[in-house]
Amino acid sequence: LGNVYCIAQSYRAESSHTRRHLSEYTHIEGELPFITFEQLLEALEDLICDTAQRIMASKHAQMVLDINPGFKVPSRPFKRMDYRDALEFCREHDITKEDGTFFEFGDDIPEAPERKMTDMIGEPILLCRFPKKMKSFYMQPDLADPVVTESVDLLLPNVGEIIGGSMRIYDEEELMAGFKREGISPDNYYWYVDQRKYGTTPPRWLRSRVGAVSYVGPSVRQHQGDVSVPQNRRQVQTLGC
């Protein structure tokens, strides 16, 4: 099929008490085979910029400006920043945890300090290579630094995170090791394992909740803790990219 995507309703099972997490939301997922991690980042740039350009050239542009009068279509390329570099940025600019200590490797940077960092930088950021222990079992480790994954969150000033994505593990043995590490039974994921067992392409995923232009208004954080499938086969379409 090549590049594909699905648009489906998703439901969050776990408790969530933040202003960006919804219990029910529209989930947009895309899968792009045979690309590198850098090409995944470029696909995210293209998705955001192309969608924004189309909307701002349409009759709906004024609606966007009513919500966000200062909105401008972002320009490419977006800034690349590794998770390790984000920790260093926070340290250099005195962005700390609530208890006043600095973030260390393996810490999740919460919404408020993450947004403070993003607003200080003042441009879209592709925040990359999060530690393996912070991410889901199916994310591909970075070959040059196996303690981190080939993962990314797209952060925008005045909004925060709007899209998440990663390379996916396509080796069966490595995937099974991920199940074991996280204490997850692979039985419920037999269909996912079979894709690796009987052959698959190296897949890369990009994921968004309410559409690629959610940054013109309120944002919703991208949850990476599930493997979702289309609820309706008719919702699977090919991407024109």
Write up what this structure looks like.
The protein is an alpha+beta fold and 241 residues long. The protein is 28% helix and 23% strand. The chain has helices spanning 37-56, 61-67, 83-92, 111-121, 172-182, 190-197; strands at 4-11, 24-33, 79-82, 125-128, 141-142, 145-149, 151-156, 160-167, 203-208, 237-238. The chain has an eight-stranded mixed β-sheet. The longest helix is centred in the N-terminal third of the chain and has 20 residues, at 37-56. Mean pLDDT is 82; it is low at 208-241.
Sequence-ordered SSE layout with sheet pairings:
Elements: E1 4-11, E2 24-33, H1 37-56, H2 61-67, E3 79-82, H3 83-92, H4 111-121, E4 125-128, E5 141-142, E6 145-149, E7 151-156, E8 160-167, H5 172-182, H6 190-197, E9 203-208, E10 237-238
Parallel strand pairs: 3-4
Antiparallel strand pairs: 1-2, 1-10, 2-9, 4-7, 5-6, 7-8, 8-9
Q: Which residues form runs of ≥5 with pLDDT under 50?
A: 208-241
Q: Strand-and-helix sequence, N→C?
A: EEHHEHHEEEEEHHEE
What is the CA-atom radius of gyration, in angstroms?
18 Å
Overall 3D form: globular
Helix content: 25-40%
Structural class: alpha+beta
Mean pLDDT: 82
Intertermini distance: 12 Å
List the defining traits of the structure above:
alpha+beta, eight-stranded mixed beta sheet, 6 helices, globular
What is shown here, in short?
With 241 residues, the protein is an alpha+beta fold.
